[in-house]
Amino acid sequence: MAAVIGTGIMGAAMARNLVAARIPTTVWDRSPAALETLVGDFAPEFPLQWALKDVDLALGAAGGDSLPLLAALSRQWHAAVAAGHGREDVAAARLALGA
Predict the structure, then answer these.
(1) pLDDT tens series, the chain, 99 aa
(2) DSSP for 54-71?
(3) Structural contact between residues 25 and 18, judged by C-beta atoms closer than 8 angstroms
(4) Residue 25: beta bridge partners?
(5) Which of 15, 37, 74, 83 would you label with 93, given CA atoms 20 to 30 Å apart?
(6) Going along 1-99, which residue ranges are E strands?
(7) Which long-range contacts (CB under 8 A, 24 or more apart) does 77-82 make?
(8) What is the CA radius of gyration of the chain?
(9) For residue 24, how many C-alpha atoms fall within 13 Å in the half-sphere facing its CB?
């Protein structure tokens, strides 16, 4: 469960990412009108498949195994994309962990 206080540029994006990752989320803003912009709008901000492309490009430029953490991230994100989460927001990567 997560909570987001304030739905400015950062808060609204965080709320969308949490909901896209299927994390129960409570959102509060001092202005009820600000919350109306979030209702039903949880489209991906940055699809996982695009983030994976960038990770793989960085690995290729660095010679692959010279960045072990990025290599591990790439393997995990490839699994998430193979499981059908590629068009979801990058926050969906956690779904491949079985969380």
Answers:
(1) 788 888 888 888 888 888 888 888 888 888 877 777 676 544 567 888 999 999 999 999 987 568 888 999 999 999 999 988 888 877 777 777 764
(2) HHHHHHHHHTSTT-HHHH
(3) yes
(4) 2
(5) 37
(6) 2-5, 25-28
(7) 77/48, 77/51, 77/52, 78/52, 80/48, 81/48, 81/49, 81/52
(8) 16
(9) 1
